[in-house]
Amino acid sequence: MTWEIKLLNTAKKGFKNLPASTLESLQLLLFELEILGPVRGNWANYGKLSNNVHHCHLHKGRPTYVAVWKVFKQRKVIEVLYVGTHEKAHYNQMR
Known about the structure:
Layout: E1 4-7, H1 9-16, H2 20-36, E2 47-48, E3 53-59, E4 65-72, E5 77-85, H3 91-94
Parallel strand pairs: 1-5
Antiparallel strand pairs: 2-3, 3-4, 4-5
């Protein structure tokens, strides 16, 4: 069974501002999240920020682009909280 992926407004805003190569990486990540689930250890700098909030890097360098998502296991829903530069990610507010 696949996971439902929801993009929050903050993620949608960031989605629009991504360079083409990073957008491709995000699309691949979203596909993997939908099919394989929220734990994505095969992505650069993947890690858990809390029990149900995860993140990874989409593109290294300057700027570094990241994605942050929250997991609702009971409903099999993944909410993408943030997509954008690492510098603008407020990790402490997403936990």
